[in-house]
Amino acid sequence: MLKDIVSMLPQELEEELKRLGEPSFRAKQIFQWLSRGARDFDEMSNISKALRDKLKGEFYMHRPKVLSKQVSALDGTIKYLWELRDGNAVETVVMSYKHGNTVCISSQVGCRQGCAFCASTIGGLVRCLEPSEMLDEVLYSQLDSGKPISNIVLMGIGEPLDNFDNVMRFLELVNHPQGMNIGMRHISLSTCGLTERFDDLARKDMQLTLSVSLHAPDDETRSKIMPANRGRGVEQLMDSCKRYYEKTGRRISFEYAMIDGVNDSEYHAKLLAKRAKDVHAHVNLIPLNYVEEYKLKPSSPGHMKAFIKVLEDEGVNVTVRRRLGSDVDASCGQLRRKMQKK
Ligand code: SAH
User: Fold this and answer.
1) Cys-Cys link to 195, which of 52, 152, 168, 240 (CB 3.0-4.6 A)?
2) Taking the mean position of all CA atoms in its chain, how far away is CA 180?
3) Is-catalytic flag, 91?
């Protein structure tokens, strides 16, 4: 069986080349070609034809194709739909900010977490993405758009901690100095709260930002809208967050989508403030994005303002997420559904 060469780290490539009786500097050359987006071994002009043929007998590379590209007329946000090796497709969003370009990538084809407000989970999980496929979301977004990518958020389709090993390897690849060399401090990983993985992540001791999609500070509300809370619970989530913060020294960010009449009362605001202070978290409020299939509505601006005031009065560090790419359905929670319907 051919091996996925784009998912390999330079040291692993070295081992592979040694096995093939080739000098180790070839590994570096090949990794550089792959990191520049080579689509075929024959593009590797400083590698002999004989070796290229040998490589073709051992490895495959399948770079993604653009199925569609939509550019927002409002803010220039780009939404890509990529075709993968097996015909599946995932979305990637490129957003431009003053401090640089951020790419929002998918970690799975579909999702099995079942959040009541999120479009990505309709239809369930199809499969996990390979490290190479996640790397290519970043690399090809940069190559196609011509925008140098400085930041990555794992906030597209899928639950990154449900694809733990592949995501960890992707992070090593994208962070590699001979590769895209994107710093861990410029990477955010967002999770619905698979607490059993928090300690594993902390042990990796990476400097990335962990975002927790909290969306409710109490079990009654959270279990209603996020099935992942059932059997885990908010207390356990808070314990895991605290341990993560103590081990890594990195502040966690709580994502909180404001849903009208569901999680936006004064009770919720006060309890959220307490939770945030307990674990030194920053709160990022997101006005809920409308998803056609669901009845949920965003909180009114007035409600949001009152909610923010409670948090600020309690001394919580709070920001409100800007909406980007809303005319191309690129906002949080809107990915994937349209393409499945087609
Ligand atoms: N599975 C991961 C990452 C993907 S979702 C997670 O749950 O964190 C990225 C963020 O968008 C999450 O915070 C998610 O809860 C949020 N989101 C999903 N649907 C949304 C919607 N309709 N409006 C606003 N935010 C939404």
Assistant:
1) 240
2) 17
3) yes
Topology classification of domain 75-341: TIM Barrel (3.20.20)
Q: Identify which of 115, 198, 290 to mutate to test ligand 1's pocket (most ligand atoms within 8 A of the CB).
A: 115
What does pTM read for this prediction? 0.95
pLDDT in tens, 120-169: 999 899 999 999 999 999 999 999 999 999 999 999 999 999 999 999 99
236-276 pLDDT, tens digit each: 999 999 999 999 999 999 999 999 999 999 999 999 999 99
Q: Which CATH class is domain 3-60?
A: mainly alpha
Domain boundaries, the chain: 3-60, 75-341
Q: Given 22, 91, 133, 255, which residue is catalytic?
A: 91
Determine the Cα–Cα distance for residues 129 and 162; give it in Å rounded to an integer: 11
- Ligand 1 pocket residue status of 125, Cβ below 6 Å: no
Q: How close is the Cα of 156 to the center of ligand 1, in Å?
A: 8
Other Cβ atoms within 10 Å of 270 Cβ, number: 15
* Helix (H/G/I), strand (E/B), else coil: 156: coil
